[in-house]
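Bug #2210: token dump truncated for Pentatricopeptide repeat-containing protein?
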Amino acid sequence: MLMMLSKCKQPKEASQLYETMLFEGLKPTVKVLTALVRAYGQTGLFRHAFSTIEDMKSVVDCKPDVYTYSVLISCCAKFRRFDLIERILADMSYLGIGCNSVTYNSIIDGYGKAGMFEQMENSLTDMIENENCQPDVFTLNSLIGSYGNGGKIDKMEQWYDEFQLMGIKPDIKTFNMMIKSYGKAGMYDKMKTVMDFMEQRFFTP
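Reproduced locally. Full output below:
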């Protein structure tokens, strides 16, 4: 129930349900408290989200994990609270919790949508240098979408080629974003080329 309230962005109701659980003697879990963090974060209530994480640290068998922090990072990126992301990463480092692909993808996507391309590429570099996770098609789509929407077609094409060299294959979303970007830039020949390529690969734009 609390997970559902979290997804429905009902932080007040989620908090009340959690308090009821404690009153009835139910033991909190990482999953439950992470859902509460999500409920607060998705509505911009970051003070409550961080407070919940601090509470988790003091509960036996309920310490925040990489998923908890990734959820909060994703929420911060959505609200462009990049100052808080640095704080979260520092906290993770202190606790010995490494980033995973979801963490990096959330940061990269957030920077990209905010037009902070240098920070986006720096985060990608950190991801590539991390032995425990590597870029994937979600990373590719973040860069393609960000540069395409920003009208930086050369950079979009450059990173498309780079990801091909890394062995990361595009999906239908990748091609649709490229078509949209080329169309927006008035590059109709390239737009048609991508559409023809998709038809050859049995994709439908």
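Output looks complete on our side. The chain has a mean pLDDT of 90. Marking as cannot-reproduce; reopen if the truncation happens again.
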